[in-house]
Amino acid sequence: MTERMMYRAGIELLIDPQSRQINVYIGKQLSKSYPVGVGKATTPTPAGNYQVVNKVTHPGGILGTRWLGLNIPGGNYGIHGTSNPSSIGKLVSAGCIRMYNENVEELFPMIPVGTPVEIKAVPGYNQKGSIVTSSPGSGPPLDHSSYLVQPGDSLWKIAKKYQISLEELLAVNNIGDPHMLEVGQIINLPNL
């Protein structure tokens, strides 16, 4: 089947760096979701609305087996495979969106140049990756509904500190494995 035959009208991609998922919508209906690795706190994946501008098979090296380039200003960002599959589900990249090679190979033929891509903003981060804080005279203080993971933190410690059950913390943050926690990750804190 050619790429043109596999293309479906109305396809859009939504990337959620917080849940580390890429969602494929066809005609506004969720068709498929894949786990991804995204930018670390110091080099976050830039939020915004973009488009796929180029496609490359076998880009090589850390880019895995496929590359979908995005028109993000100020850099060379894309959705790509990886030579390090253990990085999927983590905050590890310089801003790109990493996928398992088999997943990006499945997605690649469905995505034509021009496909819209929305990257959701991560609450509590500005575009430079810093935690947004208020200063005197800058408006109301933050409600502290999110927490930036620090070295030595665990979900158990965070839950205890904020008197939240571990199960509730896992559910609110869409985390399946309580051991999957990265320094720089933002954790939503319910009922605060």
TrEMBL record:
GO molecular function (one): peptidoglycan L,D-transpeptidase activity
Occurrences of domain LysM (ranges): 145-189
Pfam family of the protein (one): YkuD
Location of the L,D-TPase catalytic domain: 11-120
GO cellular component: extracellular region
Annotated active site: H80 (proton donor/acceptor), C96 (nucleophile)
InterPro entries reported for this sequence: LD-transpeptidase, LD_TPept_cat_dom, LysM, LysM_dom_sf, Transpep_catalytic_dom
Biological processes per GO annotation: cell wall organization; peptidoglycan-protein cross-linking; regulation of cell shape
Keywords: Cell shape, Cell wall biogenesis/degradation, Glycosyltransferase, Hydrolase, Peptidoglycan synthesis, Transferase
Pathway in which this enzyme or protein is active: Cell wall biogenesis; peptidoglycan biosynthesis
The family this protein is said to belong to: Belongs to the YkuD family.
Protein name in the entry: ErfK/YbiS/YcfS/YnhG family protein
Organism of origin: Desulforamulus reducens (strain ATCC BAA-1160 / DSM 100696 / MI-1)
